[in-house]
Write a structure and sequence with these properties.
- By secondary structure, this protein is α/β, with parallel strands linked by helices.
- The chain has 4 domains: 96 residues, Glutaredoxin (3-Layer(aba) Sandwich); 210 residues, Rossmann fold, CATH 3.40.50; 61 residues, Ubiquitin-like (UB roll); 85 residues, de novo design (two linked rop proteins) (Up-down Bundle), CATH 1.20.1440.
- It contains 23 helices and 14 strands.
- The strands form 3 sheets. The chain has a 6-stranded mixed sheet.
- It starts with 18 loop residues before the first helix and ends in a 9-residue tail after the last helix.
- Bound molecules: flavin mononucleotide and iron/sulfur cluster (SF4).
- The site of iron/sulfur cluster has 14 residues, from helix 17 and helix 19.
Length: 590
């Protein structure tokens, strides 16, 4: 393990750009990144070995040692646990004689867990060498094991295993309406950037990535930011969707990529950008080839490249960069750090990306769904988008619905739709709680199911996880705590230490050793994290825990006592000594 000193807003390393791409390519080519390859990269790029090893250390999909010819990663979030992923992973480990988390002695295979891979509507699921296989059962795993034992290349595995249905259950404003490949670009060419900005502003479009910042305002700030050369600005699509339980961006990238690219090109024309990047989460690597084919079609159609639509000076290209398994890189400044070839630690702000973003250039970063909505608004009459939703949340919201319901999948609802209406539509019964906006969001009890999906009420990036009365909500929230303890980038102390303390305290209560003191500790740590964390991850990590304490009785019922209970079980720790001395009499216990 390598630790390099961490600092925020570190300068762009010489030739750091594209480093992650080189490392990901090498990881998939060789199964690891060798000392020789690191040496070559230091020479090629003028980077130190410590820098490159520090980057490798940061991303969970990059390794300094070989992870085997077949790298199998079971998706592990609370929904996939409910779907039985753990028993299936154990089955495959047994079947292949490959201990979990280790490379099999012959180097053929390794099996492990990874955070949510965006497949909660069709889990349990896994990634094998970056390719997703959904809807797993024992039979499929046995057939996978046979192929691994026979050393059959992935290209010769049954291709239907890798087919991932879109699973759209309800289409609304965006998904039910047609959009031609260049409709937004043509709308721009036949009007003007200021007219498009006015249209987006009139539509009241707000970012779909979670925070809900006004899109027209973001684009305008970037357009107004000074540059030294024309069109030096950058458009980035945040396709790093890593919130547990979320998968709507995967569906949009699979089925609606043309609209996304149309929206990014529109943005480029409005703000004056010549460069576009889609930051695609490593878990969606299997979408790379179809997305690149789609970009190639646009180039051939004159919708990308030089003189777009025949207009001199409208030059714009889009490239796709893969992430490598770090949830924090969905945070916009971490994403930029990652693209610049660094560890994905969030930056201090200001400056914000709109004035100083990728490589110091003014940069717009938007979610996949935001670019699609912008493209469709630009191509339509005024008022179209405002016709749905609420005053503060116009338009519709794509929800990734999963958990205890008959019909998981993607649903598009107008903003302002009540939660109980959504629960009924997806076939949820005896619902004990709904977790909205992923692990960082809120755990709502039935008394709040009359609330609505809207920025001014229950805001969400799209995740909607349902738990019926059979579920242990303490275990649900403990699972979220595990996630944050794992995904905290470690840059600031409140989050690095706080996420681990919350995880430990919830585990202690779950194990039947909790007391009222622990509740106080949880609240104190949670408040500290909310107020002092460097970025949104630390600030929102305690949200579900607070909801659990405030709206449910499960924790109170599990408390062992009102008195202080040490976290450390001294009596249990003495067991080894008792065994060694052959004593088990009362005097050998505390
Ligand atoms: C920990 C963390 C993870 C995030 N992950 C994502 C993500 O996966 N996708 C996304 O669009 N925004 C994500 N965001 C929000 C981005 O920082 C940013 O606000 C967003 O991409 C802006 O796009 P929008 O205006 O279209 O919403 C995340 C924020 C935080 C704090
Ligand atoms: S809040 Fe957490 S994720 Fe964000 S900078 Fe601090 S340690 Fe990193």
């Amino acid at each position: 393990m390598v630790h390099e000193p961490r600092s925020s807003n570190t300068p762009v390393p010489p030739r750091g750009e594209g480093l992650l791409r080189s490392l990901v390519a090498e990881q998939y080519r060789a199964g690891f990144i060798s000392a020789a390859r690191i040496q070559a990269l230091t020479a090629e790029r003028g980077l130190t070995r410590a820098h490159i090893e520090g980057v490798i250390d940061f991303y969970s999909f990059l390794h300094l040692e070989d992870v085997g010819r077949f790298r199998i990663l079971f998706s592990d979030n609370i929904i996939e646990r409910m779907q039985g992923n753990r028993a299936l992973a154990e089955h495959l480990c047994r079947r292949l004689g490959s201990p979990l988390g280790e490379v099999r002695a012959d180097g053929r295979v390794s099996i492990d867990y990874t955070s949510c891979i965006g497949m909660s509507d069709q889990g349990p699921s896994l990634l094998v060498n970056g390719h997703a296989i959904p809807s797993l059962d024992v039979e499929t795993l046995d057939r996978i094991a046979s192929r691994v034992e026979a050393n059959t290349p992935l290209t010769e595995w049954p291709q239907e295993w890798f087919e991932i249905p879109l699973n759209i259950r309800k289409k609304g404003l965006l998904l039910a309406n047609e959009h031609g490949d260049g409709d937004a670009v043509n709308a721009l060419l036949s009007s003007s950037p200021t007219a498009i900005l006015a249209k987006l502003e009139g539509a009241g479009l707000r970012g779909r990535g979670g925070a809900g910042f006004a899109t027209a305002a973001k684009w305008r700030l970037c357009r107004d930011a000074p540059v030294t050369q024309p069109n030096q600005r950058v458009v980035i699509c945040n396709a790093d969707e890593g919130e547990p339980g979320t998968f709507k961006d995967r569906v949009l990238l699979q089925g609606y990529a043309e609209r996304l690219f149309d929206g990014m090109t529109l943005c480029a024309g409005v703000i004056g950008a010549d460069r576009g990047i889609v930051y695609l989460r490593g878990e969606y690597r299997y979408l790379l080839a179809p997305l690149q084919a789609s970009l190639e079609r646009r180039r051939r159609a004159g919708l990308l490249g030089r003189r777009i639509g025949g207009r001199a000076g409208f030059d714009f290209e889009i490239e796709i960069e893969l992430g490598a398994g770090a949830y924090i890189c969905g945070e916009e400044s971490s994403l930029i750090e990652s693209l610049e070839g660094k560890r994905g630690n969030p930056r201090n702000r200001p400056p914000f990306p709109v004035t100083r973003g990728y490589l110091g250039r003014p940069t717009v970063i938007n979610n996949v769904a935001t670019f699609i909505a912008a493209a469709m608004i630009a191509a339509r009459e005024e008022g179209w988008f405002r016709g749905e939703g609420t005053e503060q949340s116009s338009g519709s919201k794509l929800l990734s619905i999963a958990g205890d319901c008959d019909h998981p999948g993607v649903y598009e609802y107008p903003f302002g739709t009540p939660i109980d209406q959504i629960l009924e539509a997806c076939g949820a019964r005896q619902t004990q709680a709904v977790q909205i906006a992923g692990a960082a969001g809120h755990l709502l009890p039935p008394a709040q199911f009359d609330r609505t999906i809207a920025f001014e009420d229950v805001a969400t990036g799209g995740s909607f996880m349902i738990f019926n009365e059979s579920r242990d909500l303490l275990e649900v929230v403990r699972n979220f705590a595990d996630f944050f303890a794992h995904e905290s980038c470690g840059f600031c102390t409140p989050c690095r230490v706080g996420t681990t303390l919350i995880q430990q305290n919830l585990t202690k209560i779950g194990d039947g050793r909790g007391s009222r003191w622990d509740l106080e500790t949880l609240r104190r740590i949670g408040a500290l994290m909310r107020n002092t964390s460097q970025c949104g991850l630390g600030a929102t990590a305690p949200s579900a825990m607070f909801d659990l304490l405030d709206h449910f009785e499960v924790v109170d019922k599990r408390l062992h006592s009102d008195e202080f209970e040490p976290a450390f079980d001294l009596d249990a720790a003495l067991q080894e000594a008792r065994q060694a001395t052959g004593r088990d009499d009362p005097g050998a216990h505390l």
